[in-house]
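Regression test attached.
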Amino acid sequence: MPSPEKSLDEKLRRLERFCKSSGMKLTHQRLEVFRELALATDHPSAEILHRRLQLRLPTLSLDTVYRTLATLEEHDLVARIQTTESQARFEVQEQIHHHLICDSCKKIVDFHWPDFDRIPLPEELSSWGAITHRKAILHGRCRHCS
Amino acid sequence: MPSPEKSLDEKLRRLERFCKSSGMKLTHQRLEVFRELALATDHPSAEILHRRLQLRLPTLSLDTVYRTLATLEEHDLVARIQTTESQARFEVQEQIHHHLICDSCKKIVDFHWPDFDRIPLPEELSSWGAITHRKAILHGRCRHCS
DNA sequence: CTTTTAAATAGGAAAATTTCCTATATAATA
DNA sequence: TATTATATAGGAAATTTTCCTATTTAAAAG
């Protein structure tokens, strides 16, 4: 993640503060799962986190990692990357378009956004490699779910 | 999908053309899986497609639907929406940022893109509901994989 | 229109991922 | 320290996806 970044301590304090105010218990396991994820720079899966944590917490269950991540995600302390639900979803390849997803009913709407297709990419990405395509994903709550 | 849209016939001809030129066999099952997905507007999962197709093709196996979608995806005739791999991946919630994914090694890089964060959304979305956040996903091939 | 053959399919089994169940343990509070 | 609601471990179960193999079929050749 590019700077400016919060320090680990700041992140841990945020978790602590949140638990206190929401009544969520700050268990050893939760703290460690969060800390491990906060330290990671590689967007790990639940299983990878579990494997890393088992070195320190040999009895930690995989279920706890899943549960903790889900709980923290509900409270926006953790983000799940790029997945809708459990099942993958498909579409016939069309011309360039983007997706608008209702977080409530999970319906996906396609739309065009030529202005986005055109804006230049950030300078900092020029050395990364070859970028082949870009996509915008919008989230919200559709009319019917409000 | 907003217009202009290709007609179903055009899409089917594209599939046919592709099969011919690539040596891929145009089986009845492939044609029907593709047709069903081309007609769908709801970005269905493999299982939903299978359920719909079973009305017409009672012996169609779920595995064939999965295999067909995977094959067509490899050739860019079908797109898988918003999933990286099989396992979900996580990160601690930071300030607004976006993702750049290497299609080869699957590494995810975070980056900032204030210009994107600022551009106005398309007019056509104003009646959809309440859009709460936007995210850009870039794909490509990183330096190390080239 | 047959024959040939490499590729694809059906169906069930297996693998992989995630969630559920329940007895036990623990954080927060009194 | 006692109480209690919540969280955990561990294994079972559910869900999603892929694999295996005998059979079928599309495409090409005769």
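Expected vs. actual: identical. Chain B touches chain A through 75 residues (CB under 8 Å).
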